[in-house]
């Protein structure tokens, strides 16, 4: 069996830099930009597995890629094992793995049984992972992104879940170190540390990483194998290359990539607003 490009990243890099799944934002053009600035692995935005398999329109709206867009993980929201596996089979030749979203705390997702709602149904997460693993062999990866389980015994419950996921064959695990109810509280680095020492598969830590130094500090404390950034990389897509704020070359790159990949004006502008957040003075930002 060929080696997994994704798992090789963890062998080849002391710390794997990851662009988070971000609805509306972690699309092809933005992934292309972050890869130029030392981002090793990119996730697509979360895609609803059921609409993806039923609708050609959903597929063309939600998933665009090209040959250079690798290594790539496609993230799905799913609650039915067969649908998750079919969606995974449909994207398998265009990416390196699929990820199951078990962390989205938004009310629509919780109501519909997606995202963090699954944290209360570990047996269902198990079935979802197993179905993909049984139908698509390695080196294709199957991974899960969770938040910390919200129970009285936070550590015991989260660690039991992580161990179960490892047993059923996940390739790596991402943990956003907050519970589903937490929004702006500091991340729970002790939980990350405890998880890391309890599992063998690579662990990607997530939450509040805004700089390369922040990423390395998190690794030093927790021992995590990768770091995932969402808001930090939106406001500075060059953060993993060591820049404290968005450098001018990165803005130029964004303009050129947007032209080449037919980005909508709204998406083009949104990203510029994020990137220039800390670069432009407030008066200019308001005009912009
Ligand atoms: C605009 C935006 C969109 C997001 N979309 C997703 C998503 O599609 N899937 C997911 O698992 N998490 C999503 N998240 C959560 C992030 O991946 C990440 O877990 C969270 O923002 C914490 O990381 P940060 O502190 O680096 O922002 C999103 C976050 C933001 C800000």
TrEMBL record:
Keywords: Flavoprotein, FMN, mRNA processing, NAD, NADP, Nucleotide-binding, Oxidoreductase, tRNA processing. GO terms for biological process: mRNA processing. It is an enzyme of class 1 (oxidoreductase). Residues 19-278 form the DUS-like FMN-binding domain. The keyword Transcription does not apply. It comes from the Eukaryota. PANTHER family: TRNA-DIHYDROURIDINE SYNTHASE, TRNA-DIHYDROURIDINE(20A_20B) SYNTHASE [NAD(P)+]-LIKE. This is tRNA-dihydrouridine synthase. It comes from Diploptera punctata (Pacific beetle cockroach).
